[in-house]
Specification:
The complex is a heterodimer of chains A (506) and B (331). Chain A is of the alpha/beta class. Chain A has 3 domains: 4-237, Rossmann fold (3-Layer(aba) Sandwich); 241-333 and 421-506, Rossmann fold (3-Layer(aba) Sandwich); 351-419, no CATH class. In chain A, 33% of the residues lie in helices and 26% in strands. In chain A, helix 14 packs parallel to helix 15. Chain B has 331 residues and is mainly α. Chain B has one domain (45-276). Chain B has helices at residues 2-13, 18-30, 33-57, 66-82, 90-119, 123-143, 178-195, 197-207, 209-214, 219-246, 257-267, 272-296, 301-322. Classes of the chains: A alpha/beta (506), B mainly alpha (331). Chain A binds chain B through residues 304, 306, 325-327, 330, 336, 338, 343-350, 354, 358-359, 361-362, 367, 370-372, 374, and chain B through 195-201, 203-204, 207-208, 210-211, 213-216.
């Protein structure tokens, strides 16, 4: 048993309203790459943050090298030889690699022998073939190189156990290969790695063992050699039959949204949408399922006009609106509930009333010519608050002080009141309590019965099954398949979400 | 209040009784009809510039460049004052000068606006640096083409002819027509930011660019217009000052009002109506400051100390209003 470097025993961590980890057992052997696999919200990050000392478990024990320990902070974790590399780098852009490595290094003391540190950094870089010069500034490095700086940072502090939180999410395919080489060499030298990912092909490539988490519980740990991508996908999504909310019969109307072969890039200039084609008819809810980061947000932004596509076309109600500006698209009948409530949909520091009229402040009766009639604004806000049961203590207080559920209700109320032909909603219930979730789903179904075409983009498979009429699965910027809800099987959707299409793999 | 206490401490440190000094300051500001009129003369440019600044502060565009816009307004309007026949009708000439002043300030303000919109250059830096450029432009005209040959080498222009001077509206004082401009501008700006679409759109832009774009607001156009208005108003203030008070273009045309106006705008909590009151108070401190300098030999710099202390106290108080200090120990 001496070769177990990290052991977690019955770790439980509860956040208000959710059990993020529920009696999780986990063991990391010396010199292995152990992958944590699970859907978003399965509790992977929480578990790792517990090992790294960012969170304290409610109950359960942590053993490092066979000794029971309490890890109170990341620097505590460092003392135990644990280093975590976060998905979002903790680097200062305008400083050099060397300065970043020294940051927060308490043992450095007042006077720093830069030459010695630089030599050590170069030594680490050479040993693992990282190709990092200690005197380059961070902003001059590519994302992949920045990640390697993070690796150097942890190794410099003497980490023996590395936690990598979705390191490949930000990398281009060729960079992934290089990175994996580095990881393999590190474990050969006796370091141990916990790797977090939900890309099955990568996991099968790099892992020695895999532990699957689902809804906060550890489902099982398997050896790579004794499993397959398919089994893993099943373990990851496998669940009871999902129930569907009551709704009227499907009353398909005209074709409202037509997306043809759309391609688009993400912020880093990598291809995020790789030829998306689908259409949605009035009176139906089209659920787009997929694991985070497979192009959903980019797709919704392209449809709403917030991001340009590089090829392909988007028609709404027969009108070509490819790369039109958001206002034109809105006027053609699109309402949009964006994934980022406080960044795109609402203006956090302005009042609830100001936010309520954001979409049509320039229309009568709220505005006449150049003037805004604030009495009408108040009336309109009252009307939304009443009809959608939004709890707003003071209409003139900044909207950021509302609860998440009430913010979302306000946003949805505003968008639906526009009588849209097409409603695009992204993660409409993320982070909300059960009551608000149900309310929002009911509202969506009501709009469907009113003949609105609805595109529901969600990472919550339960939600998609609950209210959709058709389900499309997006993976790596492509829609792999579209099925009617009656024919949809959870297992198959789960496999598709993980990028496994039996038609293509067999 | 805290500002006044800090000011008192500084005065006391110079060995003067702060209470007598403050009393003298108040007398110098509001104690006589002459003092009061001087206060209003000082308040006039502050009212005008602050109102313009609120226009862009409302959209979180930090125009620190009223100083330079004021100078450019003064230079542009001087062109007409110095190059018109003394027989031109005063109404026509003053209108031309006002428009020229507005254009000068607006053009100067559009430079940082464009730099920000096109290349995302921070407006605080550009507006501030353009102030120095404007000062050099002024120096060029004062030591160059516009220097009055009869000035014995001093950097002064010719005296403006009476038709290029804004009328005095109260006999035996220096209160000039500019204060009427100020009141009108305050009202107009109030209506714009509180009642119009344009004001609403700018508030959204200031808080959240992405949401503004999503709502179909034209960020480019709105920012340009708002900044042109803000700079144009500062330029108009420059025109009223040289036309109404100084009656010539010279090196010392008090562009520092451009900085003081920032303090006024914030003390007024960005409410244009409140600017009227605050500008008169600050104008009083400035006017009274000259007074105590003369009779008590307290340096005029004390005025700056008091003003900035008040601003600090205000900003500090804002923090306490938003956050509370929690004295419980963290566990």
């Amino acid at each position: 048993m001496t070769d177990i470097v990290v052991a977690l025993r019955k770790i439980t961590k509860t956040f208000p309203g959710i059990k993020a980890n529920d009696g999780v057992d986990f063991e990391l052997r010396k010199g292995e790459i152990h992958t944590l696999l699970g859907e978003n919200g399965a509790g992977k990050s929480t578990l790792m943050n517990i090992i790294d000392g960012i969170y304290q478990p409610d109950s359960g024990e942590i053993e490092i090298n066979g000794k029971k320990v309490h890890i109170k902070s990341p620097s505590d974790a460092m003392k135990n030889g644990i280093g975590m590399i976060h998905q979002h780098f903790m680097l200062v852009d305008s400083l050099t690699v060397l300065e970043n490595v020294l940051l927060g290094l308490t043992s450095a003391g007042f006077y720093v022998d830069k030459k010695k540190v630089a030599a050590k950094i170069t030594a680490i870089s050479d040993r693992y073939n990282l190709g990092i010069d200690p005197f380059t500034k961070i902003w001059q490095l590519s994302v992949g190189e920045q990640q390697r700086v993070e690796v150097i940072k942890t190794l410099f502090r003497g980490a023996q156990i590395l936690i990598l939180d979705e390191p490949t999410a930000v990398l281009a395919p060729q960079e992934v290969e290089e990175t994996f080489k580095i990881y393999r060499q590190m474990v050969q030298e006796g370091k141990s790695i916990i790797f977090i990912s939900h890309k099955l092909n990568e996991i099968m490539d790099i892992s020695d063992r895999i532990t699957v988490l689902r809804k906060g519980k550890a489902i099982g740990t398997v050896d790579k050699d004794k499993t397959s991508e398919k089994d893993l996908a099943k373990m990851m999504v496998g669940r009871e039959i999902l129930f569907r909310l009551e709704r009227g019969p499907l009353n398909r109307g005209e074709k409202i949204l037509q997306v043809e072969n759309v391609k688009a890039l993400n912020d880093k200039g990598l291809t995020a949408l790789n030829g998306i084609t689908f259409d949605i008819y009035g009176g139906e809810i089209f659920g787009l399922a997929g694991i985070a980061g497979n192009g959903q947000k980019i797709l919704s932004d392209v449809i709403a006009g917030l991001r340009k596509s590089i090829s392909g076309s988007v028609y709404i109600d027969g009108k070509d609106l490819t790369n039109a500006n958001p206002k034109e698209i809105f006027e053609q009948g699109l309402s949009y509930v964006p994934p980022d409530r406080l960044k795109v949909g609402l203006v956090p520091n302005l009042s609830s009333s100001d936010n309520a009229v954001l979409r049509h402040y320039n229309r009568e009766p709220i505005s006449r010519n150049t003037f805004i009639n604030y009495t009408e604004v108040e009336n309109y806000t009252d009307h939304l608050i009443k009809n959608y049961d939004i709890k707003v203590p003071r209409k003139d207080a900044p909207v950021k002080f509302l609860s998440g559920g009430n913010m979302q209700k306000l946003l949805l109320a505003r968008e639906i009141s526009e009588k849209p032909k097409l409603l695009v909603v992204v993660h409409p219930t993320r982070g909300l309590d059960i009551g608000a979730m149900e309310f929002i789903r009911t509202v969506l179904l009501r709009e469907r019965d009113n003949g609105v075409a609805i595109l529901l983009i969600s990472e919550d498979l339960d939600e998609i099954f609950m209210i959709s009429d058709r389900i499309g699965v997006i993976h790596d910027g492509r829609i792999l398949d579209i099925v009617d809800i009656e024919q949809a099987k959870v297992e198959r959707i789960g496999l598709l979400m993980a990028g496994l299409d039996e038609k293509s793999t067999q | 209040m805290i500002g006044l206490i800090i000011g008192a401490l500084v005065i006391a440190s110079k060995g003067t009784n702060p209470f007598t000094a403050y009393k003298a300051l108040i007398m110098g500001a509001f104690g006589s009809s002459y003092a009061l009129s001087e206060t209003l003369v000082t308040a006039t440019p502050l009212i005008i510039i602050s109102a313009g600044l609120i226009m862009v502060f409302n959209m979180k565009f930090w125009n620190i460049g009223a100083y330079g816009q004021y100078i450019m307004g003064a230079i542009f309007s001087s062109f007409f004052a110095l190059n018109s026949a003394p027989t031109t009708s005063p109404f026509l000439l003053l209108t031309m000068m006002s428009i020229a002043g507005i254009i000068g300030g607006a053009l100067w303000a559009l430079i940082p606006a464009l730099l920000k919109l096109v290349w995302e250059v921070n407006e605080v830096v550009t507006t501030l640096l353009l102030n120095y450029v404007a000062l050099f432009v002024l120096k060029y005209f004062m030591y160059g083409p516009w220097r009055d040959p009869a000035s014995h080498g001093f950097p002064l222009s010719k005296m403006f002819s009476p038709n290029a001077q804004l009328p005095i509206i109260l006999n035996h004082t220096r209160i000039h027509f500019g204060i009427v401009f100020g009141i009108i501008i305050v009202l107009v700006i109030y209506v714009i930011i509180k009642k119009t679409r344009f004001g609403y759109e700018n508030r959204v832009i200031g808080e959240n660019n992405i949401a503004a774009n999503y709502a179909g607001i034209n960020i480019f156009k709105n920012t340009l217009i708002a900044m042109a208005v803000s700079g144009g108003i500062a330029g108009l203030a420059g025109m009223t000052q040289i036309s109404g008070v100084i009656h010539m273009l010279q090196l010392e045309i008090n562009p520092n009002y451009g900085y003081t106006a920032i303090i006024v705008a914030w003390l007024a909590a960005l409410n244009p109506i409140a600017v009227l009151v605050i500008a008169i108070l600050i104008g009083g401190i400035e006017a009274g400051g000259y007074h105590i300098q003369m009779i008590m030999h307290v340096p005029f710099g004390i005025v700056g100390v008091i003003e900035s202390s008040i601003l600090f106290a205000l900003l500090g108080g804002e923090i306490f209003k938003t956050y509370r200090i929690d004295f419980r120990r963290r566990r």
